Amino acid sequence: MTGPRLSRRSALGLLGAAGAAGAVGAAGGFAAGHAQDEAPSASDLVVPFHGAHQAGITTAVQQHLYFATFDMTSTATREDLESLLADWTDAAARMTRGQEVSPEGAVGGGPYKPPEDTGEALGLQANALTITFGFGPTLFARKRFGIADRRPAELVELPSFAFDLLEDRFSGGDLCIQACANDPQVAVHAIRNLSRIAFGRAQVRWTQLGYGRTSTTSKAQSTPRNLFGFKDGTANIFSNDDRDLATWVWSDGADQPWMEGGTFLVARKIQMLIESWDRVRLEEQEAIVGRDKGEGAPLSGGTEFTEPDFSVFSTKAAGPAIPMDSHVRLAHPENNGGARLLRRGYNYVEGNNDLGQLNAGLFFLAFGRSPQQFIDIQRSLAGDALNEYIRHIGSAIFAIPRGVRPGESIGAGLFA
Predict the structure, then answer these.
(1) If you write DSSP's letter for every residue of 289-326 in order, what string do you get?
(2) Are 400 and 180 in contact (CB under 8 A)?
């Protein structure tokens, strides 16, 4: 494949590089419940960029994330948007193969101009890098792009939920890029270079680093733990669950043909009140979650992958074994019309505040055929006992177009 098609503005961006600056959940994000394989760790592992669906959705969840959102500049035109997506597509296809962002790369362009690749990923290979692109509702609202009639009907800002404390600096965006890899520097390199290519056409709105996965998409991966110490993602949708993927993840394009094979992404930044949680008795922690902390089994009995039985009575608790306000009960498909989500969350830690408390939590990422799946489950969680220990401080929604075919750009069909 040839290198990225660099427009004049892209070339200027490489001369005056704008790095990805900025900072740096929801339904079922903390304890829902089937395990997966360890994400392949070989540094030379290449996840195909082209395909029917974008990589980074059902792909075995890698260990590291760098997520970025962008706003188009006030002077950007429709042509700028189209050329940006073309440039990003070419660069992403190269980087996911473990190559530099362009043929000249970090050292091949001569000593008298800035390198076209920043160089920090030299020698690190692909490391299972996936790059996933999405479009926010505000992109379609900008009349100068002429795509208002291509907005999926369900791509609207999420409603307010109980206990939301959202901040603009962690919310929204015209475009998003999710970069996941088994080496953190490979993920950061991808976002950094895509941000440089965007110079003059789009600028970073906010970003988020994730250092450890809290979900699984393959039964070969072990179930990870969140920062409250509980296993997370036990009941996720897996990459081989074709029926569930068709029912709950992939769009059929009935609303907008360019979305066939695509999906919707909800991103939520969830701050966890670590110090308060750490002072809670173990039995109370388990009652709040609805699972035991060691094995991850539901409090109704069994092992981690035993289905919760909400009819089991506990003589010790003098009530349901899985409490009525527990996270597992309220988030379970049985109590939400069968609705499920494919989750790819990550832990984050961003130092300590002035009181010495951890600034940490869950960056919740969930893919679904319809945003309504998330909305319904999140509304069910209004009575979740876990709400005392978490705060939703960031929120965004994006349409994730289908996969890229060789020779076309991301979002093909959007401008046809």
Answers:
(1) HTB-TTT--BTTSS-TTSPP-TT-EETTTTEESS-TT-
(2) no
- Residues in contact with 172: Cβ distance below 8 Å, sequence separation at least 6, in sequence order: 69, 136, 138, 157, 205, 395, 396
Alpha helices in 213-370 (DSSP H): 242-248, 274-278, 282-289, 327-331
Question: Contact 370/266 with Cβ under 8 angstroms?
Answer: no
Q: Are 295 and 302 in contact (CB under 8 A)?
A: no
Q: What backbone torsions phi and psi does residue 388 show, to the nearest 5 degrees?
A: -65, -20
Structure confidence by residue, pLDDT tens digits, 331-345? 999 999 999 999 999
pLDDT, tens only, 172-209: 999 999 999 999 999 999 999 999 999 999 999 999 99
pLDDT of residue 347: 98
Q: What is the pTM of this model?
A: 0.90
Contact criterion met (CB below 8 Å) for 91 and 197: yes
Provide the 3-class DSSP secondary structure of residue 1. Answer: coil
CA distances (Å), origin 322, targets 62, 303, 319: 32, 14, 8
The model's pLDDT over 279-311, given as tens digits with 9 standing for 90+, comes to: 999 999 999 999 999 999 999 999 999 999 999
- How many angstroms separate the CA atoms of 269 and 249, rounded? 21
Domain ranges across the chain: 23-147+159-400
Q: How many CB atoms lie under 10 A from the CB of residue 368?
A: 26
For residue 366, the SS3 value is: strand
Q: Distances in Å between the alpha carbon of 135 and those of 86, 175, 267, 305, 395?
A: 14, 5, 13, 35, 14
Quote the CA–CA distance of 191 and 209 in Å, as a whole number: 11
Place of tokens 């440089």: 196
User: What phi-psi label fits residue 31: left (phi over 0), alpha (psi between -120 and 50 degrees) or beta?
Assistant: alpha
- 14 pLDDT exceeds 50? no
pLDDT of residue 41: 61
Q: Residue 280 to residues 9, 228, 285, 286, 348: CA-CA distances in angstroms? A: 54, 11, 6, 10, 22
